[in-house]
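QA checklist item 7 of 12: single-chain prediction sanity check.
[x] sequence parsed
[x] length recorded as 426
[x] structure emitted
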Amino acid sequence: MALNATGRASQPGGLSHAKPRVLFGVTGGIAAYKAVTAVRRLRQWGADVTVVPTRSALQMVGKTTWEAISGNQVRVEVWEDAADVVHVNTGASADLFVVAPATANTIAKFAHGLADNLLTNSALVATCPRLIAPAMHTQMWEHPATVANIELLTKHGWELIGPEVGQLTGADSGAGRMSEPEVIADRAIEILETQGYRSQYVGEPTGKTWVISAGGTHEAIDPVRYIANHSTGIMGVELANAALRAGHRVKLVGANISEQVRDTCLSGIEFVNVVSASDVYEQMDRLAASADVVIMAAAISDFRVASSATKIKRGRGLDLTFEENPDILHDLATNRRKNAQCVVGFAAETGDETHTYLEYGQQKAQRKGADLLVVNQVGNSAGFGDVDTTVSVVTGAGEIIKEYSGTKSQVATGIVSVIDQWCTNA
């Protein structure tokens, strides 16, 4: 394997280190705050990310944030840690060089070989693929000088991503909006994969597709109000992460999952955002056609409201008419969309004076027709949210085959393991 002086592989397929090294440059555009998301996604995928901001970029997002998100020390000037020859090694050791956002000023420096900070110095020594995401006002983007500078960059081997047409700073809109951070991160990952790198959090590919629903549905009462439940979607997200780690291709249908919870999804999970039970049914019906495993972990409202087209006013009384939502799990289980498909359901139950929560779950398992049902107790600070949980995995006949307790991540890993074993041996 041929290596250069810094230890970076100099030919595709010859990898000197397991984690790809990404140098992520950030310049002083207002879109710098979006770059935080791109850095996070690259790290979640498994890249070792070093952020090199310009002095102006630190006016937008501070050094502490970049160090916390990347997990690495942040340097700005050439003279920092001079004994380690940082101004050479930072760029030369990178497997990928990303700049987002890239202002007109820094683009001009790159194009003409100026080197007045650590970022521009690094650009002169980097021999890896380079991806740049411009962000600026439309007039700046269309100025002949910028047009000429972009032509020089592409001639020198830089790959351009964006900019897009859309809302800019203030009331203006037009060409110059930075591409969305998820798009930038996904393209960066594609480039790393062409070099032979794989996510550190994904097992050997199984060739299997898992479709998982998560979260809690919202059923509209009128244009303002809705009926909901306490589900946060954390368990569904952890199931998706565990399935991805097991090497499966994962598609997650998320109902009203907060951005904070969604951000814990590992890169590589295909996320579909939905709101109501009808939305969940539509997407699960569509995606199940290509799924080897279908998991209904979302908390689906049993009923929806015959909603009002206008806001219901105080003093007029509240007389709601309810309609049954489709039993999505039963439909998916009894009308399999693909041969040899494994269908798994979740049952959040409470006990009463006649039956325990587990007995109710076992009864539900026999009604639903799924291969497996995961039963968990809810209420009294149990079940919903970021809390430890205990579940029982039962067969379609109600037989308990596994029990797991611990954090939702730990429990999800156990559930994925038993699904893998059960569906392989069934």
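[x] summary fact logged: The first helix runs from residue 32 to 45.
[ ] second reviewer sign-off
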